[in-house]
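User: quick one, fold this
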Amino acid sequence: MTETHQKKTSKTKTIIVFILTIIIGYALFIIPDIFFGVTKINGGKIGINLLFIALFQFLSIAALLYASLKILKKDFSYIGLQFVNIKKDILLGVIFGAIWTILQFALIIPNTGGANRDDIKGMLNMYDGSLIGTLSFIALGVIGGGITEELFNRGYFINVLKDVFKNPKIGLWVSVVSSIALFSIGHIPVSALDWFDILIPTIMYTLLFITTKRLTASIIAHGIYNMIAIILTYYI
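Assistant:
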């Protein structure tokens, strides 16, 4: 969007729209989890229901962000959804996603409990043993995680919040730190290991985003890790 369009939105309006969007967004992420967790329809949070959760999160968050950005007189390119230097971004995403996957499954997980880790047990409870169920789990990791979380937690959160500040450097630091903190807390870490496991990749995805100024690399890295982690955990 042009600078002229951006100036038409006041700081106060931007802050109000941002806060409401973040609150509604987190609610939309949680709603399908609660729905299937409480109702236990079709087995609960398992099998093909994971695909339904992924699609609900993606479609509802995408619609929310579209509406929010429209109110702010901006579009998705403003939050980093740009398809330029695509080959470079994909390569960066593959490299960093693969590095974190290797570190986790070749070094960290085997030496911190393996299949007995609470997070691994939680993932294993989400498999129903079917191909459709496994593909649905992968869809949740890639669509609900890799794509939707990056659009919301990285692209929208950082780029909209940072522009509220007069000083660009301060705005970037505040938005980046806030994004990392809220995204990590949202995964409900309860131990030092949990914090390590969520903070390292979150910082990595954030660095990919702010250095490239695009979401492609972070989406690829996030999606690749989630996909491979789901596949490897199945064989644990």
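User: anything notable?
Assistant: The first helix runs from residue 3 to 7.
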